[in-house]
Amino acid sequence: MSPAPRRRHLQWTPDAMDRLERAIVEGPRVQLSRRGTVYMVVPREIRSRGPSEVLLGTTNAGHDLAFALDEIEHFDVIW
């Protein structure tokens, strides 16, 4: 059995961080993928946890989720 393909994590450019921070301020949803699973959340804040930063968001069902920025593979702001 061959090993699972390595997923490429998003490179957080200044433009990507600006889009994410703007979504936090203005409130649109963000679609992101982590470990091959797609999530739709309303981003609430970015926090530092140890050496990495974490995006905190809320799903449509009201569940709070945390995503380490260095684990996110892709994201789009849904306006």
Question: What does this entry look like structurally?
Answer:
- The chain is of the alpha+beta class.
- The chain has one helix at 14-26, and strands at 29-34, 37-49, 52-58, 64-68, 72-78.
- It is globular and about 40 Å long.
- It starts with 13 loop residues before the first helix and ends with a strand.
- The model has no long low-confidence stretch (mean pLDDT 92).
How would you summarize this macromolecular structure in one to three sentences?
The protein has about 80 residues and is an alpha+beta fold.
Protein structure class: alpha+beta
Q: If you compute it from the alpha carbons, what radius of gyration comes out, rounded to the nearest whole angstrom?
A: 13 Å
- Approximate strand percentage: over 45%
**Roughly what percent helix?**
10-25%
Please give the order of strands in the largest beta sheet.
Answer: 4-3-2-1-5
Strand/helix succession: HEEEEE
Shape: globular
- The total strand number stands at 5
Low-confidence stretches: none
Question: Separation of termini?
Answer: 42 Å
Query: How many separate helices?
Result: 1
Mean pLDDT: 92
Q: In this structure, how is the largest beta sheet organized?
A: 5 strands, antiparallel
Could you outline the blueprint of secondary structure elements for this entry?
Blueprint: H1 14-26, E1 29-34, E2 37-49, E3 52-58, E4 64-68, E5 72-78
